[in-house]
């Protein structure tokens, strides 16, 4: 007799990223859908991992993360924002940013509590909220994807406990400004809210803009968790190593959930990253590196019928296809992949109600050869 099964996520299937990557592979298409680079990780970093494996760093890491890595991160953060976190009580190494987000949401979402976030949104937010008994409260943004903070305040109820922000934003490519952080700080203090700040693209900011981390705003940071990703920073998304930075009382709660989700993270990779971070050149020039890729992609698109929306950060470019087709974006993405052999992500999947703005998301974290082949096809549509 089969056991009685009630799905906790009955409408959730395979993620759009896996769907489009499989479609791209099946069709032999150029994959600009899933956000991963197609150029190699620095050989020095690979050698450091090998070095630490041979040195015997192959067993469980400490639950909060290897001490050397947490210390290195504390020094990097202190010279970046500046905020000097305590590596022992404020930094936790996680199995990627997605686990960092899940552990944070699990730590602070009680059954029946509301969590506000902004759509289009990275697809793990809502499922993580619901799995932990919370109520997702999405606020839909339309191009140019700027937040109306009065609308946010109007959405806050006695049940609201958390606000999730994402800057630079995936998929919109916009970055929050100082005024946004000041508004957020005011609301967090006024209503006693916790902020989870998804900052995985912190190093990928363009055109002279600055990254406005919650770490730069002391009063706000006292009520915040910042989430980061080594995979995005060092082109190694498959390693799944991220981290949280939060005040000691919040970090203690995150570690309670983290220890029962993954407990600890790949040990030799942590040791290697600790060594690698000692050289600032490994991360300080990333914005220049990726801005060149963005600009190359846009330059190669000149003369096409696609309209590029502003991309201020991340490694994603939104393109409007309104003048090309009236297809819904999911149908457009499938047609583009199967017929023209270029894969992208339909932006409607980042909305709860599947809002169609006739936008596709393209990843430009690729070699110029890959981008050149893709844009040659796109220019002909």
Q: Could you explain how this protein is built, in words?
A:
The protein is α/β, with parallel strands linked by helices. It has 2 domains: 16-41 and 284-378, Aspartate Aminotransferase, domain 1 (Alpha-Beta Complex); 45-282, Aspartate Aminotransferase, domain 2 (3-Layer(aba) Sandwich). 40% of the residues lie in helices and 15% in strands. The protein contains 15 helices and 13 strands. It has helices at residues 16-27, 43-54, 67-80, 96-108, 125-131, 149-155, 178-191, 218-221, 230-233, 248-261, 267-276, 281-284, 286-301, 329-340, 368-378; strands at residues 30-31, 91-94, 114-119, 135-140, 160-166, 194-198, 224-229, 242-245, 307-308, 316-320, 342-343, 345-346, 359-363. The strands form 3 sheets. Strands 2-8-7-6-5-3-4 form a 7-stranded mixed beta sheet, sandwiched between helices. The termini are far apart. 46% of the residues are buried.
Key terms:
15 helices; globular; Aspartate Aminotransferase, domain 1; 13 strands; 15% strand; 381 residues; four-stranded antiparallel beta sheet; alpha/beta
Short recap of the structure:
The protein is of the alpha/beta class. The chain is built from 15 helices and 13 strands.
């Amino acid at each position: 007799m089969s056991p009685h099964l009630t799905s906790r996520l009955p409408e959730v299937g395979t993620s759009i990223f896996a769907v489009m990557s499989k479609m791209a592979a099946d069709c032999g298409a150029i994959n600009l859908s899933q956000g991963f680079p197609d150029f190699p990780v620095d050989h020095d970093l690979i050698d450091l991992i090998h070095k630490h494996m041979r040195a015997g760093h192959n067993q469980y890491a400490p639950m909060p993360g290897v001490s050397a890595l947490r210390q290195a991160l504390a020094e990097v953060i202190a010279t970046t924002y500046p905020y000097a976190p305590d590596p022992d009580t404020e930094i936790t190494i996680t199995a990627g940013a997605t686990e960092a987000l899940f552990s944070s949401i699990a730590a602070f979402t009680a059954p029946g509590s509301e969590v506000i976030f902004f759509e289009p949104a990275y697809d793990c937010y809502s499922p993580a909220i619901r799995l932990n008994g919370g109520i997702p409260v999405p606020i839909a943004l339309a191009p140019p994807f700027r937040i109306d903070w009065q609308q946010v305040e109007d959405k806050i109820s006695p049940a609201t406990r958390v606000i999730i922000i994402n800057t630079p934003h995936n998929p919109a490519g916009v970055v929050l400004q100082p005024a946004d952080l000041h508004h957020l700080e005011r609301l967090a203090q006024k209503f006693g809210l916790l902020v989870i700040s998804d900052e995985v693209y912190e190093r990928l900011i363009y055109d002279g803009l600055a990254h406005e981390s919650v770490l730069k705003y002391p009063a706000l940071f006292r009520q915040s968790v910042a989430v980061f990703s080594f995979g995005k920073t060092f082109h190694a998304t498959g390693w799944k190593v991220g981290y949280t930075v939060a005040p000691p009382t919040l970090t203690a709660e995150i570690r309670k959930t983290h220890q029962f989700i993954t407990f600890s993270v790949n040990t030799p990779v942590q040791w290697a990253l600790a060594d690698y971070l000692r050289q600032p050149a490994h991360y300080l020039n990333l914005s220049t590196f990726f801005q060149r890729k963005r600009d190359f992609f846009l330059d190669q698109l000149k003369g096409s019928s696609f309209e590029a929306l502003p991309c201020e950060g991340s490694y994603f470019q939104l393109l409007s296809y309104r003048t090309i087709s009236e297809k819904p974006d999911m149908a457009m993405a499938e047609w583009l992949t199967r017929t023209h052999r270029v894969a992208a992500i339909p932006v409607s999947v980042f909305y709860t109600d599947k809002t169609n703005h006739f936008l596709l998301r393209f990843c430009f974290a690729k070699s110029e050869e890959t981008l050149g082949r893709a844009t040659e096809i796109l220019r002909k549509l």
